[in-house]
Amino acid sequence: MSSNKVNAVSDIVDVKFSNGENFVSTINDKVAKHKKDIKHLKTIDHIQKYPLVQQTETALNNILVSRIVIEKTLPVAEYIIHSRPVEFFSPALIVPDTIANTSLNVTEKIVPSIKTKTYQRLGEEAMIPCVFVRKVNDSTIQFIDNKITDPNHQAIKRWRVYYNQYVNTNNKPLIRGTFDPLFSKLNKHLEKSWTKALENDNFINKNSYCCEFDKSIVLTINIIAQKTKDVNNKILSYPKNEINYVKKVNNTTIQKLEEENNFSLGNVFKVLKETVKTK
Length: 279
Hints:
By secondary structure, this protein is mostly helical. The protein has helices at 3-12, 27-34, 42-47, 51-61, 64-81, 84-89, 94-110, 119-126, 128-163, 180-198, 212-260, 265-278, and strands at residues 15-18, 21-24. The two termini are 58 Å apart.
């Protein structure tokens, strides 16, 4: 074998002999040694400027599984890209690359938002129907309050003032007001017990009732609402804590792997095990 062929083979696979054992250099070492500057595709460079693509790349780099895949496949991909066969056929990609890049420019003129679209904006656009429904609902409730509820309530109050000239009820409802002595004791018991349980001194609006009977209804509704909210918070707190734990383990593991610059599967499992033990 000629010296040139031997040099060519040794450039691809570097074999060293030590204590009778062969140690083959890794692909990463060869990529660093043989990496060459080649012409980047304009289409790829163009796409990488989009915020959505940048956010996706950032997200994948911050996920342990995808980061391992990237670290394992990127050296091989770069080695192939910078190989002589690919460089030999690269001129044939100029025309398709130019056409694809021109298509992107045309698309940007038709849909300019593609240049600034982010996942946050996509979320806002997805919520547009919900926001519209909420606005319609709020407007409907406000219309009912202004045009129906409030006028009728004012009419009842005027009627109460009128019949109080003949039957004095201290501006309380004629029939419901007669039950005040009975519901007053019940309401005091509810307020005392549930205020302490809910740790909230103002869970009832003082202006939302006109007699003890109405107050008991308001109390019951507010107690149910507050207790339901408390239960929901406890239910949601568990998966939230688990998600935060997984996220913390993920970020800590990636950080340690980056510091060691070693994404081999053995080291990944080792660092992951240590991280889980310490968290």
